[in-house]
Amino acid sequence: MTTPTNPFAALRNDNRQPDQLRPLAFTPHFAPHATGSVLVASGDTRVICSATIQPEVPRWMKEQRVPGGWLTAEYSMLPYSTLDRKPRDISKGKLDGRSSEIQRLIGRALRAAVDLRALGQNTLWVDCDVLQADGGTRTASITGACVASALAFEKLIRAGQLAKSPLKTLVAATSVGVVEGVPMLDLNYGEDKEASVDMNLVMTEELAFVELQGSGEEAVFSDEELASMLALGRKGIRELLAAQRAAIAAGIATLCA
Question: For position 65, what pLDDT does the model report?
């Protein structure tokens, strides 16, 4: 009798180990009219993340005389990003609750990483557009948006519009969960749908938490399961940070070419 090379293959529909991220790739400068941009591919999930600078701040900042700049995010899933066509929000006349919650999360994550005073009287618009969704679109958006912002700041420095990068630290995000009793890292859509526990982690380079979202899906979880998920999440975040650094370096090298 032959021994399976991957004893968890039956649990993971893409043959990954429980502690393994999906294949990750960044394509810098994907949207040439944005100040900085990247296409992030996490397994079959693909998101265009762009960062665009505008020389103005929101009116409330002017009225309250708040120093520095601002950063805000928008998130959308294109109609063909899912198996069934997803109507555009504009066709419904309002942003759906899920998209609103996700773009607020992206904005919070990036503002934790950016020195808004160093932005000057500017607003950085972060746009995340999902081309293809297979789970983890919010975590891929945060991870990609950080790379896009780093590239945008580098471009502004080279143009003499910023003295230094306002990016204080990298920030990345991943998901963890419990599927059929096994803690797993970076859930795809099929796993997310079957998970008894689902959690998203947003962390900085120092492995400090920016946000932690988790709940049982008609289930509960133990201290041991929580500890396992957090350990998996930290491992994944470290790998994402390394990939971000490589993508930023490659993008900057392209700017120099």
Answer: 86
